[in-house]
Design goal:
- By secondary structure, this protein is α/β, with parallel strands linked by helices.
- The two termini are 54 Å apart.
Length: 637
């Protein structure tokens, strides 16, 4: 080592001495006694593979015997990497003794060097028997895709590739996608999100090489047109899932090709594509061999004709989602239901469709005998009449979700619950038409099957309404009343008393007027089964509630009393309770919880996995002690 690092002396360096001009260490030779001029060898004229044209170098590289050798060659330079990535899998000259093990390389975008890609860095993993890679943001470059293609080609190539975003300077183009096509003919799933530089040429290569493609997801790809989609349709007959979102140049021609060629297609999602109209949708859905079971159409320029086709030909469709269809009228939904073709439909979601009216809902209920899940969002013309008609007609209905349907009132909800014999879940969100009025409920039958009731952010829903609904729901397991500022103990207590013991999850967050009386009643009547209780924002809840919870809720595993009037005494009482499964405890905003609670929290922490002490009066040093003792628990402070 002294020879390498600390060489000293009065003599000059000579050719063949300790340091050669090529910076390769050579053993020291005897120094000559006669000085001669310092000579530097000119190696610029030495033979080099770099002087070969790409065609010759391509022929050499494709004859490398194995994956390890190809990966090593890819580390030489970007030029070699890109040439290797252009070699189609079928063009590789394979030897019988080929080594199947290969390294995964990545070329540094700022130099000609190459570095190894770690598995964690690029989310490489074995998934269902094939490799999965996800490239995002700054790492999404052609060089990266080329490295992936070369590094994985000898191991069967990728089965799934997701590209999310693109490098703003050296973004992914058709060159990178072509490299994947050449090196990974076994690709089954391809997802391209927000990659504006990838166009039809890249999809041509995928279609030419990746005949096993099963799922294709194109989102915000403005350079891809019908030509690329037609190529996929004609060459990838195994396609089972297609998603096209915000692709302004894909229209009817591409969808028609999919309908003709992809007879195994099961899932279809088309969103915000202005060139897609009735011709494309109807052609795809009416193809004789269609196996579609899941369809989502959003923001398209389709009319009643497309819905009529769905109603007539959608015999296999089980999940249907229709959103923001501005040109579809009441007639479209009416025809879709009366066509009697949606016999297999199980789940229907309608969002922001002005054509969805009471008449259409009734027709859908009658024409879909197996409908179990109904979700209606922001449909301003759906009223009580349509909801009740649907409940009566759809005898298999198990779940109803209504969001921002402002013509729905208390009367419609009560009658729908009473008429749905199999209803298991009812959810109301931001329905502003509900008013807290006293109605006659003696003629309504209770819904014995209802297990989950969620009424959130409906300001008109008060104690009177809640008491009436409670009489119709005797066997609830889940109750969510978050954001109902108008309810009081007088409205909730009758519901708790009318329910048979068995509530498992209760969310009362931001119900500002509830007091200890509700929490105590809940703990005493349903404590044996209660697993989750959220009282966040119930400022009138005090230590008395925690004491009852501690004594009566042995199965409780998630408790949130944030911003309640809880003190150190309440925490101490909770720590002495019967809870053996408490895993998550939130005391955020409980200003009267201080350092005195640390011993109690340590006792509770034997099973805790999550503890929220934000905006409490617990000091940083006390939190540090808790962190040391409760090493399994995630503590927020």
């Amino acid at each position: 080592m002294p020879t390498l690092v600390n060489y000293s002396g009065d003599d000059e360096f000579y050719s063949g001495g300790p340091f050669c001009s090529a910076e390769v260490y050579c053993p020291p030779r005897k120094r000559v006694r006669i000085s001669s001029p310092f000579v530097v060898e000119d190696r610029s004229k030495d033979p080099s593979l770099e002087i070969l044209p790409d065609e010759c170098l391509f022929e050499i590289l494709r004859r490398l015997p194995g994956g390890r050798e190809r990966s090593a060659a890819a580390c030489v330079s970007k030029r070699w990497l890109m040439l290797l990535s252009s070699v189609r899998n079928s063009e590789i000259c394979r030897s019988k003794s080929q080594n199947n093990l290969s390294s995964v390389e990545e070329v540094n975008g700022d130099s000609n060097d190459t570095t190894m890609i770690s598995k964690d860095e690029d989310l490489e993993k074995e998934c269902d028997g094939y490799l999965t890679r996800c490239v995002e943001g700054k790492k999404a470059t052609d060089i990266r895709l080329a490295a992936i293609a070369v590094g994985t080609s000898s191991r069967g190539g990728l089965g799934k590739l997701s590209v999310r975003g693109s490098n703003s300077v050296r973004g992914i183009t058709n060159v990178g996608l072509s490299a994947i096509a050449h090196g990974c003919p076994s690709l089954r799933v391809l997802s391209l999100w927000n990659v504006p530089s990838i166009g039809d040429e890249g999809l041509f290569e995928i279609a030419r090489e990746c005949h096993s493609l099963e799922k294709l997801d194109l989102s915000q790809c403005p350079s891809i047109s019908n030509k690329g989609l037609v190529a996929i349709a004609e060459n990838c007959s195994s396609l089972t899932s297609l998603t096209i979102e915000s692709c302004p140049n894909i229209g009817n021609e591409g969808l028609q090709a999919i309908g003709r060629c992809c007879t195994k297609l099961q899932s279809l999602t088309i969103k915000d594509c202005p060139l897609v109209g009735d011709q494309g949708v109807a052609s795809l859905l009416s193809s004789g061999a269609t196996m579609l079971t899941k369809v989502k159409l959003q923001g398209l320029n389709i009319t009643d004709f497309s819905l009529a086709v769905i109603g007539h030909y959608g015999k296999m469709i089980a999940n249907l989602n229709l959103s923001s269809l501005r040109n579809v009228s009441q007639k479209g939904f009416w025809v879709m239901g009366n066509a009697q073709g949606l016999q297999s439909l199980v789940s229907l979601t309608i969002t922001l469709c002005r054509g969805a009216t009471d008449v259409g809902l009734e027709a859908v209920g009658k024409g879909c005998p197996n409908l179990k899940h109904m979700c209606i969002r922001k449909c301003c013309f759906v009223s009580d009449g349509g909801l009740v008609a649907l409940a009566k007609a759809a005898g298999s209905l198990e779940s109803v979700h209504l969001e921002e349907c402002n013509r729905i009132t208390q009367t419609g909800i009560l009658n729908a619950v009473s008429n749905c014999r199999k209803l298991k879940s009812l959810s109301l969100v931001k329905c502003m038409g509900i008013k807290d009025l006293a109605l006659q409920t003696s003629l309504l039958s209770p819904c014995e099957s209802l297990r989950s009731l969620s009424i959130r952010c409906c300001p008109g829903f008060g104690s009177t309404s809640l008491a009436m609904v409670g009489k119709l729901c005797p066997k609830l397991h889940q109750l969510d009343l978050s954001g109902l500022c108008g309810i009081t103990d007088a409205g909730l207590l009758p519901l708790l008393e009318s329910c048979e013991p068995g509530l498992v999850k209760v969310n009362l967050s931001d119900c500002l007027n509830l007091t200890d009386q509700v929490a105590i009643s809940l703990a005493r009547q349903h404590g044996e089964t209660l697993e989750l209780l959220n009282l966040d924002g119930c400022r009138k809840i005090t230590d008395a509630s925690l004491m009852e919870i501690a004594d009566n809720c042995p199965l409780l595993n998630d408790l949130d009393v944030s911003t309640c009037a809880i003190t150190d005494s309440g925490v101490a009482g909770l720590s002495c309770g019967v809870q053996v499964n408490l895993q998550v405890l939130s005391l955020s905003g409980c200003l009267m919880v201080s350092n005195k609670s640390v011993p109690s929290l340590k006792k509770l922490g034997e099973n805790l996995l999550g503890l929220n002490l934000q905006r409490c009066s617990v000091s940083c040093s006390a939190v540090e002690l808790l962190v040391e003792d409760l090493w399994r628990c995630d503590i927020l402070s």
